[in-house]
Amino acid sequence: MNAQVRSAEAGTGAAGPAPFIEFENASITYGKGARAVQALAPTSLKITEGEFMALVGPSGCGKSTILKMVGELLKPSTGYVFVAGREIGANPIRIGMAYQNPTLLPWLNIRDNVMLPLKIVPPFRQAFRAKRKGEFRDRVEALLKQVGLAGFAEKYPYQLSGGMMQRANLCRALVHDPDLLLLDEPFGALDQFTREELWAVMQDLWLSKKLTVMLVTHDLREAAYLASRICVMSARPGRILDDQIVDLPRPRTIDMTFQPDFVELNQKLRAMIVGARGGTGIVSHQPGTA
Amino acid sequence: MERILDTLREKGASTALILGFFVAWELFCLVANISDILLPRPTQIVAALVKFWPAIWPHTYQTLYTTLVGFSIGVAIGLFLGVLIGSSRLAYDTAYPLLVGFSSIPKVAVVPIFVLWYGAGTVPAILTAMIICIFPIVVNVATGIATVEPELEDVMKTLKASKLDILWNVSLPRSMPYFFAALKVAITLAFVGSVVAETVASNRGIGNMMMIASSSFNVPLVFAGLFVLAGLGVTLYVLFSLIEHRVTGWAHRKTDLASP
To answer: I need a labelling partner for B242 at 20 to 30 A (CA). Which of A253, A290, B91, B125 fits?
Structure first.
């Protein structure tokens, strides 16, 4: 790891609140030599604490790559990622993550599945034995209730529908009070109605916990419904084409998604992504042209 | 009541087949007038089993003992290697070719080497039983551990879980169905190993008893030995199936987990 620990604030001046996460010319290149593919062009991006940020763009554009860098699953090939003003890894922040695949453990019931992070993440880890039957149990119970899974703690994952599993997956991502929630198309595999229900659940969670969320999605309505800010990315090598604040009032409702201003926003995003795909529906592969 | 009927219907067919097999065997020998030196009738075999039981019992004990000791050591080694190979790509790539090489040696062929090292008796039988069990367990456990969903691994890594955390909470429990599937194969193989070793180089054990019985043309006793081996094998298989169902019921969920 680069031992360099420095303030991300140094070059940015004092405008606005300090960013919680900052990318400084971070890029990702897979492979080596002639076969190297640049997945993400050097990208600079700031995310403020408490923001709900959505990343949209054509498939293969590096949206998930950005998420993985924040989750310390990938190191930038060039550039830096800062968290809370220091290089990533220097500040221990708690992260919750949820993918499209709920990956609940089939041998544990929903309560124990949701409790899993408490078994691993300090400071909960140290108290796990003492509190698993008391405080932690209540914490899980409260969270399950909040996502509409009250009474399902004793069930096993296979007894749940896809939407319910995804609710449990969200609980697992939130149970250890993360500072940051990373969502990679969490509602992608659900039917329209279940998805819209879960948008409402997600919005409630965000409004009540005020955490920072990064959401990767294909669904533009989803991005516009949930996010306070949307970044549109170009086709590979990915870079950020557009960055805009969504200032629709909260809490948003499904009805609002049919209002003119919402539809207009959607169409604008759509046009940008169609443009980014080259307009033909074929993703242009031009490694090296950032 | 309905449940008992259901069980009967389920087990009925297989029980009928087993009984039918022995009845057919008995009738065939009687009708074709086959000498008991060639193929004794089941009733004669059972009679031999009862008659010689005091003599058979020490051999049975010996075979069971060598098989179980060899099996236990083999399972321990297999589990350890499986975890090691399954949790590291490097270990997998490095060790796998050697392992395949070892496993493709017919285990019977190594018995003379064990005899050379340890003399005839208990140790070669234990070692043969052990070595024959290792491979299926290594392969299955390694597969179970190596096929953890990458998304789940990512989730664990963002929680800053250590390799041991992941192994203990995710990979090991996940590989249990694979492990038990391998155990059932391995226990049957372990009997093959110990009996082969006893046949070649031992003065105790069911394998040895069958050799002696056949050289004195006591064919019903030879078959009695087979019956004992079949009995032991089935008993242990059932035992592991029961443990498997308790430990990894979640992997066979449809039939009984739904109604706890």
So the answer is: B125
